[in-house]
Amino acid sequence: MRQPSTTDSNDPSASEGERLQKVLAALGWGSRRTCEDLIADGRVTVNGDVAELGRRVDILIDTIAVDGVPIGARPDFVYYLLNKPRGVISTASDPQGRPTVVDIVPLEPRVFPVGRLDGDTEGLLLLTNDGELTHFLTHPSKGVEKEYVVLLRGNPRLTDGQLRRLRDGVELEDGPTAPAKVGQRSDSTVSITIHEGRNRQVRRMFEVIGHDVERLVRTRIGPITDTRLKPGAWRELSLAERRALIQAMAGDARR
Ligand code: URA
């Protein structure tokens, strides 16, 4: 029988990183208490060894498994990254019969888009059947960054004052926006990073400062980015990407 791993001073992951029970709880294995029981019952391994309570792990390095199933690789969950083209609707079904993002990816198992992009917005969209991850990525309190490239109509350069307004927050009809990261990339192109995800938020923010958005492309969701995925193409997230998301969720659980 394999023995519980003990704290090993040669193993950096033993003294740094997140507590294992917090990581498991963040991944939806149950309450912190339930996860402590999983560990105490010897059902959790780290790098192949049965883990003991209080063990710290680095999700990007350590291989954690529950009942022999590596976390981040649960066979019942799928994670697709789609480069949504313009004109495709990001709901699960459209009463008007327009093409939707779920028409592009495999039908089974059934997946749902993680948040929404407007019909005329392009770029990265995740689809999954993992409800915990969806909640984490979309709930405003989690503060997960989403980055966009914005092409403005009429080739303007934003003034310092306009950049500052966007960065500090502008007043929209549903309240002020939270501070954003904003940078002028070239004439007419601006990058903006927000973490709220309100309806048509980026378009409305630019409207307030007097600019029309001609093209809006999402280029990053938290740690997930891909400059090579063609519009309309999709792929599964890699294990490294899933681990990066798990890492973000575990970091959130620590707060
Ligand atoms: N902001 C918008 O205005 N539209 C989107 O689709 C996403 C963010």
Mean pLDDT: 88
Integer-rounded radius of gyration = 21 Å
Alpha carbon gap, first and last residue: 36 Å
Largest β sheet strand count, sense and barrel closure: 9 strands, mixed
What does the overall shape look like?
globular
Any overview of this molecule?
The chain folds into three domains: 12-70, Structural Genomics Hypothetical 15.5 Kd Protein In mrcA-pckA Intergenic Region, Chain A (Roll), CATH 3.10.290; 79-141 and 224-253, Alpha-Beta Plaits, CATH 3.30.70; 146-221, Alpha-L RNA-binding motif (Alpha-Beta Plaits). It is 24% helix and 26% strand. It contains seven helices and 17 strands. The strands form four sheets. Strands 7, 8, 9, 10, 13, 14, 15, 16 and 17 form a nine-stranded mixed beta sheet that branches. α2 (20-26) packs across α3 and α2 (20-26) packs across α7. The two termini are 36 Å apart. The structure holds uracil. Uracil (URA) binds next to α6.
Throw out a few tags for this protein.
single chain, 255 residues, alpha+beta, Structural Genomics Hypothetical 15.5 Kd Protein In mrcA-pckA Intergenic Region, Chain A, Alpha-Beta Plaits, 3 domains, 9-stranded mixed β-sheet, 4-stranded antiparallel β-sheet, 7 helices, 24% helix, binds uracil
Structure summary:
The protein is built from seven helices and 17 strands. With 255 residues, it is α+β, with helices and mostly antiparallel strands. The protein has three domains: 12-70, Structural Genomics Hypothetical 15.5 Kd Protein In mrcA-pckA Intergenic Region, Chain A; 79-141 and 224-253, Pseudouridine synthase I, catalytic domain, N-terminal subdomain (Alpha-Beta Plaits, 2-Layer Sandwich); 146-221, Alpha-L RNA-binding motif (Alpha-Beta Plaits).
